[in-house]
Each structure stands twice: as structure tokens, then as C-alpha cells.
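sry for the spam today, last one i promise. C-alpha cells for design, 131 residues
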């Protein structure tokens, strides 16, 4: 399969598609901040398979090549982290704590809906402090 891209991109331009491989087909490109986390989830009859890349970047600089972006927040619930590493880890840690308290108080494991609600509440309550 051949791909062709015409024109030149500068720092203010947007990538031609939301594909991480698109950058390989663009000669003489000046990359500003197009690096981001890549994560995916595939559902099947018995559950979900999660996958994520392992790089932490600071602009065009790869700060860490072996970051674990999949975080366990309860026995059966994991989250994919993307964004400021410190912020996403702090949010995941807070949700892990609250889900542990929930399991202890309710005597059962939390549902995905409960976990999602906690993530939403923690993020919204701290929106001024998160980058």
C-alpha cells in the first residue's frame, strides 16, 4: 500500500490524520508537539484486552522508554493513563484508594460504573490543579 502526502507542514499545522504512523510519510516535517499516548482496548466475550505504548515524552524528547501506562485500580478494573504522568498517577492512586474503601465498606468489588464515576469526580474536583 502506497501513501502519498502533498504539501509542507509547519509548526502550526495539524497532522494529516490521527494516525501515529502518518509522521513517517512526511519528509522535512517540523514536529512541534504531536507526540501522545497510544492506548487501545479490545472487547471479547469474556472481558477486555488493554494495550498502551510505553514512552513518556517531553515535547520531542523521550524522557522514559519504559513507563507503565496501564494502572490497576481494583482487582478487576484497570485504567489507561494519558497526559501529565504525575497528574494521571495521582488521579489513579486516589481512585485506587477510594475503590479499596468502597470494596471494604460494601463487601463487594466495585463495578466499572462506580470506578468511572470516581475518576470523573476526582478529575472534576481537582480540575484547577491538574494540567
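last one done:
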Amino acid at each position: 500500500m502506497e501513501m502519498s502526502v502533498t504539501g509542507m507542514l509547519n509548526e502550526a499545522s495539524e497532522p494529516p490524520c490521527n494516525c501515529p504512523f502518518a509522521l513517517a510519510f512526511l519528509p522535512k516535517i517540523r514536529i512541534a508537539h504531536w507526540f501522545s499516548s497510544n492506548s487501545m482496548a479490545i472487547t471479547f466475550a469474556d472481558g477486555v484486552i488493554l494495550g498502551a505504548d510505553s514512552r513518556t515524552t517531553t515535547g520531542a524528547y523521550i524522557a522514559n522508554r519504559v513507563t507503565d501506562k496501564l494502572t490497576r485500580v481494583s482487582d478487576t478494573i484497570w485504567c489507561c493513563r494519558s497526559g501529565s504522568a504525575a497528574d494521571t498517577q495521582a488521579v489513579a492512586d486516589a481512585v485506587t484508594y477510594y475503590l479499596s474503601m468502597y470494596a471494604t465498606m460494601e463487601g463487594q468489588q466495585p463495578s466499572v460504573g462506580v470506578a468511572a464515576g470516581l475518576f470523573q469526580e476526582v478529575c472534576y474536583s481537582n480540575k484547577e490543579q491538574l494540567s
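DSSP finds two helices and six strands in the chain. ok im logging off now
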